[in-house]
Amino acid sequence: MAGRAKAADGQVIQYTTLKVRLYPTQDQAELFEKTFGCCRYIWNQMLSDQRRFYAETGAHFIPTPAKYKNSAPFLKEVDNQALIQEQNKLSQAFRLFFKDPENFRHPKFKRKKDDRDSFTACNHVFESGPTIYTTRDGIRMTKAGVVKAKFPRRAQAWWKLKRITVSKTRTGKYYCSILYECPVRRPEPVAPNAETTIGLKYSMGHFYVADNGEMADPPRWLRRSREKLVRIQQKLSRMEPGSKNYEEAVQKYRLLHEHIANQRRDFLHKESSRIANDWNAVCMRDDALAEMSKGPSRKDAASSGYRMFREMLRYKLERQSKPLIILDRYAPTARTCSACGLAQDSVDYKVKTWTCPKCGITHNREANAAKNIKAQGLVQFGKSA
Ligand SMILES: [Zn+2]
User: Ligand 1 center to residue 343 CA distance, Å?
Assistant: First the structure.
């Protein structure tokens, strides 16, 4: 996640999230469960009151969590911050809904069976110190105390801890996303040119193909895990729902699913970091991946993570004041010869290579498209600059 807020002159505020695995004690895990439940409860209470007020008076109003504490004393057992955050989340959901009802749904009641277990708490810094902070091997939270945690990397000393979100996966693992505010010196904008710019073409088979012919083949283990997932899926479809074997297979399926999601995120982070560090500008095309995946190829393009990859590239480049140049999805990149510019009516999407009838150069189909994406991207950037 990345964003900008007000900062001192010459500085920009960036936000960084560290996701750490938590190892709560049994008491702490019980407190988390209670907090998840209280957050759902307070959300539903506030929403139900909002609906009633709205129906009776036509005015939009959300009560504060304090209103419910006498009739539901169990709310006092959990972090009040988490309850306040539910009020903020509900207010925000209504703001979006009122502003743009076509794209944002009316906030819904939360049910345990289809809601993610999570709560959020903001850090408050008092004279006596902050309410939330990290220790060598844990995170100190308001009610839970120090919860054991494993840090994949550590925050820099000058980062400010803003808030945490504790969540539980369906396989019973606890995680904490820690949001930091990181002031950084505003980098000098970098002007792209042909030597320092890379063009990327989305590829079903290779994830992407670059204009210089480089590809990012997803590692073999990722493919192998996916094949395993399909096998469990098929097995599940033949089993009796509710039986013990079925439940075991479901749990196995969830674990593998989670594992693949982690593997994929690692792969996307590594690829996007490498590109954002090696190049001054990246050109891509705004492909409609969801539509492509409905096409004749059965591979799920949308789930291949290309969109996530693009968002990672966007913020990793932005941090270095480098541009991500996105071409319109209808830009004729596939059927144009990158050598002589001849635009043909169409190019066969099943072939690997084709030869230009005008200049006679044989192109790798995907690398040729990547070359055009880069060239057209640089033109587009020149016009906008
Ligand atoms: Zn040509």
Answer: 9
